[in-house]
Amino acid sequence: MSDFVIIPDASSDLTRPLRERFNIPDYIKGTFYFPDGTEALADLDWELIDPVTYYTSMSGRKVLYKTASARRAEILSVYEKYLKAGKDILAITLSSALSGTNQVCHLVAKELLEQYPERKIIIVDSLRYSTALSLLVIMASQKQQEGASLEETAAYVEANKHRIHQIGPMDDMFFLVKTGRVSNFKAFFGTLVGINPVADFNRNGLSQVLGKFKGKKRAFDATIEYMRGTIENPQDQIIFIAHSNREQAAQVLAQRVRDEFSPKEIIINHVGMSCGASIGPGLCAVFYQGTEISENMEQEQALMNRIIAEQKN
User: Could you give the CA distance from residue 89 to residue 87 in angstroms, rounded to a whole number?
Assistant: First the structure.
């Protein structure tokens, strides 16, 4: 097996047990600002604040947390530690459509490779964020464990990143709209209470709203039907259910996914604090591998339109 390490960033939502399980030795911590202006490094293990307190504080749009790209010094420190140890690096970063972290990683890598010319650093722009990045990192780890080289694993991630889907309801689009995480927000901003938008990733690395549903049951029904039209080989997959302080809804959705698709494993996790600052409370979504996202999401939108039409009949 090639001697390289996989390094994601703090947007990956991979807690310590998951990092240990999938042999992810480290990650890049982004810059995080509390509402009082206090600055910290965003961690993946909720050492600064627990998730319930974090998301509860954001309820009613009362409190805003802010994030910034990972700093050069943080990236350099992490990368150099492994280069010095004789290991190459596969870095998988937060979508470049949302953050400058990918660009800073490239600059740091160029600088370090001049000092360590015998080593390799490959940086992949995931064009994903949050738990979608978790899934992509785990897929890379599994490929590595199968004996794939650094180059083979990087190529695998590049080839499959547009096969990572998300779908599931969001209670409140306010935080996503405010931070530019959705591409077509004008059609859905200001939705009424009880209306649940659902979105998937487009090829530009942003979430794109595909439809909205009155109530969680209709949204979950649409989620399952959308999965049915896009998922591939669910019995071989680890599927994530991610939520931002919606544990009960996540358990309900997980059971429905289990009953319908019998995946290899379902992992329920909180959206991490880094991405949570822009997502806010109210997300409950499933993340899985499926058909490749089409250009302009024409196929995905057509599928969702059929689902909406069938619900009306």
Answer: 7
In the predicted model, is pLDDT for residue 92 greater than 50?
yes
Q: Which of 197, 135, 193 is nearest to 170 (CA)?
A: 197
| Eight-class DSSP state of 262 | -
* pLDDT higher than 90, residue 239: yes
Residue 219 tokens read as 């949204």
> Which one of 3.30.450.150, 3.40.50.10170, 3.40.50.720, 3.40.50.300 gives the CATH number of domain 4-161?
3.40.50.10170
Q: Of 273, 299, 307, 313, give the one whose Cα is nearest residue 50.
A: 273
Fold of 163-312: Hypothetical Protein Tm841; Chain: A;domain 3 (3.30.1180)
Helix segments in 118-180, DSSP class H: 131-145, 150-160, 174-178
**pLDDT tens digits, 247-279:** 999 999 999 999 999 999 999 999 999 999 988
Predicted TM-score (pTM) of the model is 0.92
